[in-house]
Each structure stands twice: as C-alpha cells, then as structure tokens.
From TrEMBL:
The keyword ATP-binding does not apply. InterPro entries: DUF1254, DUF1254_sf. Pfam families: DUF1254 (PF06863). It comes from Rotaria magnacalcarata. Keywords: Signal. Gene3D superfamilies: Domain of unknown function DUF1254. SUPFAM superfamilies: VPA0735-like (SSF160935). This is DUF1254 domain-containing protein. Residues 1-20 form the signal peptide. The keyword Repeat does not apply.
Length: 286
C-alpha cells in the first residue's frame, strides 16, 4: 500500500509538471518500487536544500545561522562543536552565509580587496552543484562585484551596471546560497581583521544597486523576506533527520513545488529579452 501510494504521488507530480491530465498506469510491484526509489533519490538534493533554506531563513529562530533572505549572516567566531546545520564545518575559517531569491530581479554581490587572505564564496543552486566559486584560488584577492541572475530575467543588464561588475553568474534556480568562508587564525586580533572584511560583503537587489550601489541590507533594515514561518516539518532539527521523518506527501509536495521553478541544468535557461519586470523598467532605462 505504501509503495502504491508513493507511485501515485510521483505520477501526479510528473503529470502536473508536464501539464498533462492525470492517468492511471498499471505497474508491476517491482517496477513501482524501482520508480519510487529513483524519484526519491532524484529529488533528495532539492528537498535537502529547501529544508535547509527554510530553516536558515527563519529569522525568528535562535539558531547560529538564522537570517532573513538577502542578508549575509557573518559568523564572528568558529562554529561551536554543537552546530550540525552543515556537515563538517571548517575550523579555520569564518562563515558568511546568504540565501538569495532571484525570482523578480538579479542581485549584486561584492566583496572588498582581501589583502592576500584566503577566502572563497562558492555559490550553489538548490540542486547543489556549484554555479561559480569566486575566491583566492580562482579569481585572486582584488575587490570584485558579481551580478546574480535568475531564470526569469530575460534582458541584458544595463550598460552602467555591466561596467561595474566583474562577472555575471546565471542560476537555473530561483533560490541560491552563497557559502562564504574567510581564513582566520582564531586570535582576537585576526578576528577583528576578518570582521572588518565581513562587514564589507554586500548584497543588494539590482534596483537598489542602480539607485545607490553602496546601499545594502542588514538585520536592522531588511524587509521581512523570511522562509516559510510555518513549514510542514521541524524547523530546528537536523536536516537529515527532518527529511528521514517526513511523510511521503510532504516530501513530494516540496519536490514538486521547487521543480516548477528550479531547472536542474543551466542549459534549460534562456535569456532572450522577451520579458522584463515592470517595476524596474523605468530604472533600467535611466
């Protein structure tokens, strides 16, 4: 019964994504089990990322990394031994973590000159491949500015913006996460140096950047763009345990919802100039 229910959900999910009418398919038990396992595995990284995003952006929570969307959470010390939000956190870097929603417009991310200090800012999609990896090894330590562009944005960035950015990074998913890390020796003196660098890690929407490229958000002035305040799962448990304890319908509902706006491959994303968000059309023409 459990397997039949699982397969039914999978078929409904797939047919809804394809715009097809629901239909019944007769499957042998072994075939149903194989499809169920493959579908579960296929969506695991997507569901894992979504649970992590909602937990981390639940700004009312008391966790180490609870911060609203679009704001860097700069950890000021090494993660405590009790933190299990990510697997095997580094013990020689300070984390700077930000979830970004690229649904309505691109965002601009910049960092200062890192003064030959080791750092990296890997940027992940919800499917968890690395979109890009700015850092000492790949881009060097000079200051840099990046445009983060989501799947709905269809036009070139304004020339005056392109002149100020180092690179455009395209994402096939609406949500991305920047998992920044900056080397620190752990001394109080070095903590202070890294804190000053962290304070200069900037994130702002394209419209804000056009108005004032130095304006940014912080916990104090950020609009309430939080994760789902009442998700159908535990907001504080370890992600692995939360998913393990999910019922079937919750798992595949999350998977189906995110698949609607999250292409697994950048090859599926097209930027043909056919649409533009009207809220920013005037600013872009300035």
């Amino acid at each position: 019964m459990q397997t039949r229910y699982l397969v039914l959900i999978i078929l409904i999910v797939l047919s809804s994504l394809c715009g097809a009418k629901h239909s019944y398919v007769r499957l042998e038990p072994h075939e149903a089990r194989r499809i169920a396992i493959e579908a579960y595995i296929y969506g695991y990284s997507l569901v894992t990322s979504e649970v992590t995003r909602i937990q981390m952006t639940n700004s009312t929570g008391q966790g180490v990394v609870n911060t609203p969307m679009g704001v860097f959470n700069n950890l000021r010390s090494y993660p405590p031994a009790t933190y299990h939000g990510v697997v095997a956190p580094n013990a020689d870097t300070l984390y700077s973590i930000a979830w970004v929603d690229l649904d309505s417009e691109p965002w601009i991310f910049s960092h200062p000159d890192m003064n030959d200090r080791f750092y990296l800012f890997p940027i992940y999609t919800l499917w968890t491949p690395v979109l890009d990896d700015p850092g000492t090894r790949t881009t060097g330590t000079p200051s840099a500015t990046y445009a983060l562009v989501g799947p709905k944005w269809k036009i070139p960035l304004p020339e005056k913006v392109q002149e100020k950015i180092t690179k455009i990074i395209y994402s096939p998913t609406r949500y991305i996460v920047i998992l920044g890390r900056t080397y620190c020796t752990g001394t109080q003196e070095d903590y202070q140096i890294v804190h000053r660098l962290q304070d200069q890690y900037l994130l702002r929407p394209l419209g804000t950047f056009i108005r004032n490229e130095n304006e940014t958000y912080s916990r104090s002035n950020m609009p309430a763009i939080n994760g789902n305040p009442d998700p159908p799962f535990n907001r504080t448990g370890s992600v692995r345990d939360v998913i393990k304890n999910m019922n079937i319908s919750t798992y595949f509902n999350i998977m189906a919802t995110r698949m609607q706006v999250s292409s697994s491959s950048g090859k599926d994303v097209k930027y043909d100039g056919s649409i533009i968000d009207k809220r920013y059309s005037q600013a872009l023409c300035v």
